[in-house]
Every structure is written in C-alpha cells, then in structure tokens.
Design brief:
It contains 18 helices and 14 strands. 42% of the residues lie in helices and 13% in strands. The protein is of the alpha/beta class and 480 residues long. The protein is globular and about 75 Å long. The chain starts with a strand and ends in a 6-residue tail after the last helix. One of its GO terms (cellular component) is nucleus. Belongs to the UDP-glucose/GDP-mannose dehydrogenase family. This is UDP-glucose 6-dehydrogenase. One of its GO terms (molecular function) is NAD binding. It comes from Heracleum sosnowskyi.
C-alpha cells in the first residue's frame, strides 16, 4: 500500500490530497501542518478553506484513507511519497527583495525530510517554485541522505480557486518533471500511475525537471498577460466610447486567441499571478535578460495602473473628494467562490479610498472581519508569511466597518464599489438599495456584473470598467 504525506494543508495541499485519496482508495494520504488551528479545522465540520465541492470529498475519505495531523516528522518518515506544498512568498528583504521567491520554508522542509527519513522516498514539488529549485533541494537531500535514495519530481498545480475540485477531477493536463536517469524515470512512473487512476494517460505530460518548473511560471504569466492586455484596452474603450465586452467578444471569436481570461476588471489577484511574474522577472534579470524582464514587469505595472485608475475614477466622479463619504465595498476576495484574499485588488482599492478619507462598509460572503483588517494592515508582499513574523502597518482602520450583508453595507452610502463577482451581487434589489442611499447614488462596477442600463433607469450614476461612460461622468474631470 502506497503512503503519501503532504507537508502543508493550504489551498493547494488540502484539496489536491483530498482528491487523490478520493480517487485512489488503496493509497493512504496524510496531510501534515505545523498549524494546530489549521489541522483542527481540517478535522472538523468547518474546513479552513472554502472551495465548492471540497466538503463532500473530504467527508467521504476522512478517517478512511485521508488523515490530517500535526505529527509532521512521524508521517514524513513513514511515507513513500512526500509532497511539499509550503508557502513560497515573495522576499521582503535582502537579495531579490520584491521579486524573488523566499524558499525558507521549502529548505527547512527538505532538511527535515533528510533528517527523519529511514527509507527511500520520492519528494514532489507541489509549491510554485523558481526554476532550478529542485536542484537546490536535491543537493540538500543528497548531502544529508545517510545513504538513502531521494528522487525529486516537479508536479506543479494548475488549479483555479473556486473550481479547484473540478479542475482536479478533470484536469486539462497533469505535468510531472523528473531527472532523465533510470531512478528519475522510475519515480515519474510511480506518480504517473497514481494520477492515471482517473486522468486519461494522454493528459499526463512528462518532462525534465526544469521544463516542469518553468511551465508553471510561464502558464501563469501568459494568463496574467491576457488580463492586463484587456484591462489596458478597457481604458482605451472608455476614452473612445467603445464597449470592452463587445471588443472582448469580437477578438475572443478568433480561434487563435480564444475567449478565456478576456474579462476586463479592476485587476487580477490571487496567490500566483503577481508572485510568479515577479519571480520570472527576477530569473530573467539574473540571466542578463533585461529586455525580457521589462516585458513581463509591464504586466504587473498595468495591473497596478488599473487599480489606481479605478480609485481615481471614483474620486473624480464624486466631485473630486470622498472625504467623510460612505462607500460600500461589495466583495473582498480576489474572485468569487473563494475566501482567499491574497493580492486581491480590493486591498489596494480600499487603501486608496481610505487615503482620501472615505468611510468604508465592507461586505464579503466568505471573508471574515479579522482577515479584512489584517489584509488592510499588512505591508505588501507579507500576506504569505505567518502573522507573528511580520509587523503590521499602523494605519488607522477606524474608517472601516465590516458588515454582514450587501444591504447593510449600502445603507446611507454615497457610492458602491463591486470588487468581487459574487453571483449574489447580480440579483440584488437595486431599487431598494437606491432608496436607502445618499443622492446622487453611484455604482462603480469593477467586475462588470450589473445591468448598467437598468441601474441608470433606477437613478444610479454607473461606472462600469471599459463601458461607454455615463453622461454624468463625462462632465467630471478625469484625474489620472
């Protein structure tokens, strides 16, 4: 019986291991984490992360062939395959600060694996890591192996939060990279055989280690590039009177381009896109490829520009001042169907509004108040570090109220900002909301989820990204 241990019970490790256990009943899977709180949650009825479908998968396997434990060393020592799914945040200081990945947690995991292992193991990179990380981990394990054979594989994840379980059940591809040696090829086959229990063989791609590592960074960079490209077009649409949805539809019909990731918005977020592009920029710079680095860096700069542009549009539309005005923030997670707030555009938008002395009422159906306050107080690039290891900004959050419904958030507000495309925001009673707001009442739709013409008929002044401007807004100075 194959035993798998996964170090790290976060957004990648937890769902991935749950699905492996579900699809491979003969495999024993244990997820380990040093966080007692997180493991306690995995063993409870209230899982530590929100992901549609995850509850059912966990409940069917937990206690049978899926286990969650804080006994990290014990389960690593007993495992045949060790997945490492720990955080690789962007460095906040030292060489490569602001771009390079911090591999502190990865290195400590590798040293622990070497220390406690008494039998040969396959060690699988599941975290997003820089190219050549496997080589560094291999050196640590080899120099501390005590004669034990370790084979390193790269098995990057390609999950989208909100659809992770479906992505795991029916993946576009599973990528496994390993050494081109007899031992490396045997290790690839072991992992391939596990995935092959439910994934068609033609969708399992086997490469060398470096190709697998770089493919993950490249995939996220290409996806983020599409978002920034359409967001750059959204600014031009507003300036010319074009409609970004119509433009997206037209170019998406080109089979060479396709329609996915062409939805204009206030900006992209999440745990991967920005971090991976910055990592790619750093790798390019280290290899003397400054022009290539600058090309990828522009994707981040357009994303930051889009968020600033959104804030500036709000301020300029409301007579160039929002001081003391109440703004309802609908949605704080970086996308719908997840409670994840890492790099969510809402953080920068809220900080921009707070900097202009606005009063914020924030509502998100899955993000707790404590998380919102932490995100608005935490310095940039620190979101993936444990709270106790980072200092919090002294920003005064007395201007922030976290409320329990969209209707409570919008009561007596001057304006509404929609920052996450939660389905419930599409079916709100906007007449009721309008009646309870200050006038003129504004809607700033950062996700293009509302029926613009319907809201204008009610009486709202509506700004929707990349759409023809409301006549009211055309007369307002565009502070950019």
């Amino acid at each position: 019986m194959v035993k798998i241990c996964c170090i790290g019970g976060g957004y990648v490790g937890g769902p991935t291991m749950a699905v492996i256990a579900y699809k491979c009943p003969s495999v024993v899977v244990t997820v380990v984490d040093i966080s007692v709180q997180r493991i306690t949650a995995w063993n409870s009825d209230k899982l530590p992360i929100y992901e549609p479908g995850l509850d059912d998968v966990v409940k069917q396997c937990r206690g049978k062939n899926l286990f969650f434990s804080t006994e990290v060393e014990k389960h690593v020592a007993e495992a045949d395959i060790v997945f490492v799914s720990v955080n690789t945040p962007t460095k906040t200081q030292g060489l490569g600060a602001g771009k390079a990945a911090d591999l502190t947690y990865w290195e400590s995991s590798a040293r622990m694996i070497a220390d406690v292992s008494k039998s040969s193991k396959i060690v699988v990179e599941k975290s997003t890591v820089p190219v050549k990380t496997a080589e560094a981990i291999e050196k640590i394990l080899t120099h501390n192996s005590k004669g034990i054979d370790f084979q390193i594989l790269s098995n990057p994840e390609f999950l989208a939060e909100g659809t992770a379980i479906n992505d795991l059940f029916m993946p576009d591809r599973v990528l496994i990279g390993g050494r081109e040696t007899p031992g490396g090829q045997r290790a690839i086959k072991v992992l391939k055989d596990i995935y092959a229990q439910w994934v068609p063989e033609e969708r399992i791609i086997c490469t060398n280690l470096w190709s697998a590592e770089l493919s993950k960074l490249a995939a996220n960079a290409f996806l983020a590039q599409r978002i920034s490209s359409i967001n750059a077009m959204s600014a031009l649409c507003e300036a010319t009177g074009a409609d970004v949805s119509q433009v997206s539809h037209a170019i998406g019909k080109d089979s060479r381009i396709g329609a996915k990731f062409l939805n204009a918005s206030v900006g992209f977020g999440g745990s991967c896109f920005q971090k991976d592009i910055l990592n790619l920029v750093y790798i390019c710079e280290c290899n003397g490829l400054s022009e290539v680095a600058n090309y990828w860096k522009q994707i981040i700069e357009v994303n930051d520009y889009q968020k600033r542009r959104f804030v500036n549009r709000i301020v300029s539309s409301m007579f160039n001042t929002i001081s003391g005005k109440r703004i309802a923030i609908l949605g704080f997670s970086f996308k719908k169907d997840t409670g994840d707030t890492r790099e969510t555009p809402a953080i920068d938008v809220c900080r921009g509004l707070l900097g202009d002395q606005a009063q914020l009422n924030i509502y998100d159906p899955q993000v707790p108040e404590q998380q919102i306050h932490k995100d608005l107080s935490m310095p940039k690039y620190n979101w993936n570090y444990p709270v106790h290891s980072v200092s919090m900004c002294p920003d005064d959050l007395k201007q922030v109220r976290v409320v329990s419904s969209a209707y409570e958030a919008t009561k007596d507000a001057h304006g509404i900002c929609i920052l996450t495309e939660w389905d419930e925001f599409k079916s709100l009673n906007f007449q009721k909301i309008y009646d309870n707001m200050q006038k003129p009442a504004y809607v700033f739709d950062g996700r293009n989820v509302v029926d613009v013409e319907k809201l204008r008929r009610i009486g709202f002044v509506v700004y929707s990204i990349g759409k023809p401007l409301d006549p009211w807004l055309k007369d307002m100075p565009a502070v950019m």
